[in-house]
Hints:
8-stranded parallel sheet, 38% helix
Amino acid sequence: MKTKILGRTGLEVPIVGVGAAFIGIPTANQAAEEYPEDPNNLRGDEFLTSYMEEELGVQTIHAAIEAGSTLIDTAPLYGGTRSETTIGNALKARPDLAAKCTVTTKVGQITMDAKDFSFDAVLRDVEASQERLGIEQFEVLYIHDPMDAPMEQVMGQNGALGALRKLQKEGIVQYIGAAANEPDTNAPYIETGEFDAAVLPEAWSILNQLAAERILPAAEKHNVGLVVATPLERGLLATGPRADINYLARNFSQGCLDHVSKIQTLCRDYGIPMVAASLQWCTLHPQVAATIPGARTPEEAVENAKAGAIEIPDAFWEDLAPLVRHFEIGVDR
């Protein structure tokens, strides 16, 4: 696996890690239903529950680390804390693998409709994550999705940043990051220069260039290490267009789908998996250290990890460059 340095943290990370929002979910279409806009959405006669399967998730984490994806990114939100619990059980079962990996998690959000960025809430979040994950000290903790919270409160001494600074002084966390699902929220946080790293969803892929406007310049200015989430656009840039897949929070135009087919053809001409081209393209930017595609199963985790080790010639990148463009790929909000 190729590695890079995560900005000013100095941490060496694999260019392909694991986004753990969907670990242990058997099918892509089930994953697309995991985080509904309505938290009280019903399936049949029962209230919504997670599709995550514990044993499948444990196997996925083991497979990922063994294949070289030693950066695992999670959050209490994912699976209603099931993701953290699953990762904790996976690491407890295989301490040899636990010793090789870096696990990052987040604070401030437990459910889709329950956020609390107060000082005391963040301390509680971290304590609960420590227990679920079986980890006492974290390399990076991120403030999660502060889209609807006043920035001055989140960044205040009595808010999330103040709590994380306290934990930093105590040695509980080394570095502090931002992780907002909306680029328009991520950008101003990164621009403050207060954050060592940032998780970057919905803003940087072969089809999405939003990060170029504000996020990448700010990251370069402050040497913020970036970890790209959604680098495969919910799988489209791994498999190419498929009519049987529900692409979570995406509304791809036919023009976009046709364009992806062109990229797929170029990859085939070079004998390069499109998943490898898509993931490695993200990390060509000097501030982007890693990608964290959302592996559901051991097979996906291994495929993604292998994609980070494939050698891609300069000639391919030169031929791909004219095909890299921004689409309003429709993050449905």
